[in-house]
Amino acid sequence: MIQPKTFGIWGNTDKTSFWETLPDILSWADENYLVAHLTTRIIQDEKCPDSNRPSIQSKEDMSSLDFMLVLGGDGTFLSLARAIENLKTPILGIHLGGLGFLAKVTKEDLFTRLKQVASGDYILEKRMLAHATIHKNGEKINHVGLNDFVLSNGESHRMLNATIHVNNQLVGNYKADGLIIATPTGSTAYSLSAGGPIVTPTVDSLILTPVSAHTLTSRPLVVPANSKIMLSFQGTDELILFIADGQIHETFDPSSQVEITKSDFKINLIDFEDCDYFQTLRTKMGWGRRGDS
User: Fold this and answer.
1) CA-CA distance, 129 to 205, in Å (whole number)?
2) Catalytic residue from among 66, 74, 148, 245
3) How confident is the model at residue 101 (pLDDT cuts 50, 70, 90)?
4) Is the CB of residue 92 less than 8 Å from the CB of residue 112?
5) For the chain, what are the domain ranges?
6) What's the Cα-to-Cα distance from 220 to each of 34, 223, 285, rounded to whole Å?
7) Which tens digit of pLDDT belongs to each residue from 224-253?
8) Residue 74 annotated among the catalytic residues of the structure
9) Which homologous superfamily is 129-265 in?
10) What is the CATH number of domain 6-122+272-285?
């Protein structure tokens, strides 16, 4: 891979650990002749150690950088993934949170991994995003998500009644507390908690997982990623709540429809030859272990 000359820093500025780590990263960049760019949110914070660094003020500013370094938990990572969208700028995640699954690097091996990236010793892993179009009162509202979209009744804890078609074929009527449409990346997030399967990132697919289904016959469903999923919501007069990646919220009336497909672009994640997806499952989720071990 290329040896980078520039990179951007995107971080959770509410975390003390971010401000503790940032000065060391900036010093490392200077020592290795890399130009570090900071988001305006970082630069404008009074805790910023060097406000004279080049700033990232827009999505276009990220397009010219060799990679983006994101420091925080999964939420911070997801926000950057959506901001980058169709840019090809690779992302390297540094985990500063609790149970983070998206970031490849911990604080302990931060500079070992940065040294590898600086020397071009890394690989790129492509991850698909999901795309949702909400057809609402003659409008089209578009969102992308790296993890998932969640739908539920917006103003109560009553059951969601959703009719699902895949490629114009009726799947059925899902009656549940909510419905999750996840990517393989998101299969280890909320979908897994709701009983959905783990799907490895290389399996191009979308996963439909009901939340607390009200019938025993409603089960998670995996469909090819090139499918078109249509959701309609007859049988209720309550607003529907739509959430992208746990961060972006929309509400709409039940006469609206939601169309979900895979996005027409993927994001690039920086990975390393010695990283192992299943090892990550075992380490972070205790996958494959006995409950008493």
Assistant:
1) 10
2) 74
3) confident
4) no
5) 6-122+272-285, 129-265
6) 46, 10, 20
7) 999 999 999 987 778 999 999 999 999 999
8) yes
9) Probable inorganic polyphosphate/atp-NAD kinase; domain 2 (2.60.200.30)
10) 3.40.50.10330
